[in-house]
Amino acid sequence: MSGTWGEYLKLSLFGESHGKCIGIVLDGLPAGLKLDLPFIGRELARRAPGKNPLSTPRKEKDEFEILSGFFKGTTTGAPLCCVIWNKDQHSGDYSELKDTVRPGHADYTAMVKHRGFNDYRGGGHFSGRLTAPLVLAGAIAKQVLEKKGIMIGSHILNIGGIREDHFDSLRIDSGLLWKLTEQEFPILSEEAGIRMKQEILQAKAKEDSVGGVIETAVVGLPAGLGSPFFDSAESKIAHLLFAVPAVKGVEFGTGFAITQMKGSEANDPYALADDKVVTLSNHNGGILGGITNGMPLLFRAAVKPTPSIGKVQQTVNMASREETQITVQGRHDPCIVPRAVPVVESAAALALLDLMIEKDGVTWMN
Amino acid sequence: MSGTWGEYLKLSLFGESHGKCIGIVLDGLPAGLKLDLPFIGRELARRAPGKNPLSTPRKEKDEFEILSGFFKGTTTGAPLCCVIWNKDQHSGDYSELKDTVRPGHADYTAMVKHRGFNDYRGGGHFSGRLTAPLVLAGAIAKQVLEKKGIMIGSHILNIGGIREDHFDSLRIDSGLLWKLTEQEFPILSEEAGIRMKQEILQAKAKEDSVGGVIETAVVGLPAGLGSPFFDSAESKIAHLLFAVPAVKGVEFGTGFAITQMKGSEANDPYALADDKVVTLSNHNGGILGGITNGMPLLFRAAVKPTPSIGKVQQTVNMASREETQITVQGRHDPCIVPRAVPVVESAAALALLDLMIEKDGVTWMN
Amino acid sequence: MSGTWGEYLKLSLFGESHGKCIGIVLDGLPAGLKLDLPFIGRELARRAPGKNPLSTPRKEKDEFEILSGFFKGTTTGAPLCCVIWNKDQHSGDYSELKDTVRPGHADYTAMVKHRGFNDYRGGGHFSGRLTAPLVLAGAIAKQVLEKKGIMIGSHILNIGGIREDHFDSLRIDSGLLWKLTEQEFPILSEEAGIRMKQEILQAKAKEDSVGGVIETAVVGLPAGLGSPFFDSAESKIAHLLFAVPAVKGVEFGTGFAITQMKGSEANDPYALADDKVVTLSNHNGGILGGITNGMPLLFRAAVKPTPSIGKVQQTVNMASREETQITVQGRHDPCIVPRAVPVVESAAALALLDLMIEKDGVTWMN
Amino acid sequence: MSGTWGEYLKLSLFGESHGKCIGIVLDGLPAGLKLDLPFIGRELARRAPGKNPLSTPRKEKDEFEILSGFFKGTTTGAPLCCVIWNKDQHSGDYSELKDTVRPGHADYTAMVKHRGFNDYRGGGHFSGRLTAPLVLAGAIAKQVLEKKGIMIGSHILNIGGIREDHFDSLRIDSGLLWKLTEQEFPILSEEAGIRMKQEILQAKAKEDSVGGVIETAVVGLPAGLGSPFFDSAESKIAHLLFAVPAVKGVEFGTGFAITQMKGSEANDPYALADDKVVTLSNHNGGILGGITNGMPLLFRAAVKPTPSIGKVQQTVNMASREETQITVQGRHDPCIVPRAVPVVESAAALALLDLMIEKDGVTWMN
């Protein structure tokens, strides 16, 4: 299976990079939800390429069309199917790829799994382009979460070796997160941002690419979301984050660095603030025993350098079974990280909405 | 939901730390599987406490009993229910915990989620003890995978700040992994192991605890396991890893460090070895586009320091709504990492077996 | 898969007729539910054999034990595992069945599916005895539904050719249903009941068996439960009813007889009663478009004659691949219908509770 | 949830009667399946209205378009999304229905469930038109099953009170079934067919409608499909059959009439035919203990009279909360039964394919 996810909110993802369209069915939304369509458009625009020299000049306007489940401005309770029709695709660019598998991409594994029947054009169903419908669904989830005062935002923690400070895990507010979502290249420190962009442009000049880490925070979450074990909040969120191509690591709270701490440092002590139970540090990133504790939820996702690069690479021609070389032609991103920000946020929004429905049903949405 | 997992192999986990038993139902195993019961016992023993001064002196013999689905030495095709009866529990030790929530544990979140009706004794259903049935199920999955020549093994990469080398991601073999599974404290370098143990004993002496990172490798996997997006191999494995209490980070291949590399370094170039497609490096940890590529699968799991410590900690009494202090009594692990090794391996074994069944059905098991 | 069911409330069924126990895990119940254990016992007693000459003299006291998820008299929110330990089983009676398959039973299909590895003693996992844990789970569901004023009850519509009147589909009330659940042999007309019992005793005298139809009604349901298409209320209920061994037909409302009506007769016209929308007839059995309409929900389940009979039957010895004859020894039910009543009601209760949770979440239960 | 189904083959159904389109996503088909597109078209044509005076003159050409998962004439292994664009809809006909609920339809229950936000035009998502994508998916399932020699066919057992003979449950062959699928009005006896059509035309003349029973057989099935209890072959098939609007009863084998038989009559005795185990009667309809036994699988589905009739009916205006009358305008079917035949067959084909994949994986399809 590659295309279905969710327990309370069911997603069904379909489409190919160079096929007719890409799309998603969302099942489980209640009737009567007003959808802010311009907001969905803005979220898609955050993911879209071609906005600046940091990304591919390929234009994907990513205009979406709702095919079902929407009537007179609100959801109807029936499954919502949305598609983005493909345009401006240069299929010719990819004809070489039929047999010569691109290193770092899914070309080889797709060919093995689907025994050569996969649509290889532009990666087909395996293309990063399929994250656009995920952002579409995520934009709907974000709108719904916002009704409960839940806000998601991110900054770029590092691009290659250029790094800025972490979020202050105790003092994140929705105002900061909102500001970050309005930035094309969201960072906390302008100076670090300038150096990160230079890093990207330098890689681009060398026909190479760079990766980075996205740090995401969610504020306004109630305590009590998630479960111990199989449906822990970490499991649900990480499941969707690792569904995003290019994500190779996920950590919550202090993450891998927590292993360098003593228990007496890592345990977040409890205190009362206005009779509300809070923790005095937040190394667990707002999740204990798989369940949210009401503190800011914090995670980081590692995004690998874009595999499409102009440099010559060693590879294999699968038809002739011979070693060969490849130079990936076409218009590629020297760095996918800024465009991955709304994708990572969407994964979190969808996982959290599923957990919210488990906890409270759907009636609160209206 | 806290207790069910799986698409092809369904798990149903139940039990409490100080209740009658802990157990698991496995549904989806084919009939006619001979089970190596002593192997299951040995895997449980790897997780069991009380073996040495590095862990809690609490004895949990963890003898298991198969209640159903097993007849004349083989599985019957019906659901396999296995339990471990609880013994040697000192419920008295935990009576204080009813109201005073332990920092770093699930006490507070369990209380919020279950509105005070949770079994609080020893963490109840949220206890790390529930990982024993997971190891039991994992031991069965491992046996099955071994029939296809698939071997899983791990070493401890670091305890606190004491660190040893990574696996050589290209040259891991089943012999090495086998040897590691036979070690009580699995490490590649004996010298590093000695220092790690010292680190643990020092923390113990200070009534404190330490965490660490487990690095796990899987060899012998076929190419083609997993799917793009929602059921990526990374998603499935990470979902189960984050179901393990104390895991706060998961990364595949070079993981977070891949964000420091250029695309030209991070892409694993293809070559032919005896007409088999291989990669010349393995920064993607054996997974591309969510699907295994036949190279060693490699991941790391960050395990936080044991939250149970003898030091005085700040907390809140939930009944009186007052700030207070707690000293966690009882017999605790200064470091859970060595005991977490078979748990982490079980999570991987179960996720991979589910993917194997998706790909090839169940007939190959016999 | 044979053992898991449910979307919001997850069931995991396990055990064998002559193994150690039979049992079930219920996952998805909220914390804090007081369970009426004597009521569960009474429901199990309704299903238990050996009460009168109409059923097998085999005694199954069916005392249940809760292994997990229950603490201080209420559910904890963690999975509830309940078992019934097997006693009074005469395994010797079934030794012949290893190879000689009983007509009308699952012996042959179980052997094919599980390639001879199934536990054949008394039908093993395929035994009707596995409906006891279903009744146990159903008894919990019934208690919960009752909090919303939802009541389920049944009468025996026919035993063989002896038939009584249908429920009046518009005028069923909870008082009548309650009275029916207290009868060992629930019927509307005492006179018909006497003749049905005679029919059973006559079959018994001839070493034969009879079947019958159970008619079940549910009152107090809110309108709006269920969905069009895949999760229609009919689909959910019928799915569980057909999970009950021996059920060969299910119909809702007027059922098969509605095909003899004109649209102008079958359509249930709407009217207002105290400003509540009601229908003036109830041929659709309380369900339209897969969704409850607030009228009494009505269905019938056809239960085939007990396959275990003392008469000589033609069959095949699977080991020698020869045609042979069989006389099923042991203590059998000449008619399973009265004992199937609580099973059928449990199936409905569980399906409806799952739909209630979908609609309203779980908070109303407390 | 209304729109997702399946364990191994996942379906996601979407669309509205008068919206842009109706469609379905199929996830879980292997790559490399050649699809016989004209066959899909012919199956859709069997369901389409407007072919003869027995059905509505409304034309629905139901041309389908594959949006994803199909490349160079075969499936790619990625989700297959197919849509049928809506044309020739007279939305004006339905404007009255916004408030005045049609008896026998889902108008009232849809309004309650979706609190008035449902698309009411022509029944919206609740329309029988949504069965077209189900037939589309079923046509694919049928093609795949045919590769294993599995053939599905049906005849109309009765229209109102006009009835013909049952299938001979032992002697159905694929030739007969094939012939039936080629008939617009499939019957075993031409004479009965003539009288059934007269029954339909008489109802039409009176602005009324009639229902009927469809009897379906499946031959060529292997023994061993299905499971005891929750995923019994009966449960899976009945679940999908009851997802079809208008189906109010489902029975297998001799069905409800088996309750009139003795065990000694109803048990199907075993014999050997060319060393193959067969039964000498087939009252269980090819399923024992939830698992196929290799005999013809036989079921019947009761289809209620079309609720849309020209006669005046009592109803309620939901906006004004007043009792009122309705005459359903528009072009309606006096009898839906012939058009329901491919829908019922599709439900069976999809359920059986899901069970086939469970048993044998997907590799046999290629």
Automatic annotation (TrEMBL), chains A, B, C, D:
Homotetramer. HAMAP family: Chorismate_synth (MF_00300). The gene is aroC. Reduced FMN (FMNH(2)). Keywords: Amino-acid biosynthesis, Aromatic amino acid biosynthesis, FAD, Flavoprotein, FMN, Lyase, NADP. Pfam families: Chorismate_synt. Gene3D superfamilies: Chorismate synthase AroC (3.60.150.10). Its cofactor is FMNH2. This reaction introduces a second double bond into the aromatic ring system. It comes from Dehalobacter restrictus (strain DSM 9455 / PER-K23). PANTHER family: CHORISMATE SYNTHASE. FMN binds at H125, F126, S127, G289, K304, P305, T306, P307, S308, R331. InterPro entries: Chorismate_synth, Chorismate_synth_AroC_sf, Chorismate_synthase_CS. Its EC number is 4.2.3.5. Pathway: Metabolic intermediate biosynthesis; chorismate biosynthesis; chorismate from D-erythrose 4-phosphate and phosphoenolpyruvate: step 7/7. NADP(+) binds at R47. Belongs to the chorismate synthase family. It catalyses: 5-O-(1-carboxyvinyl)-3-phosphoshikimate = chorismate + phosphate. This is Chorismate synthase.
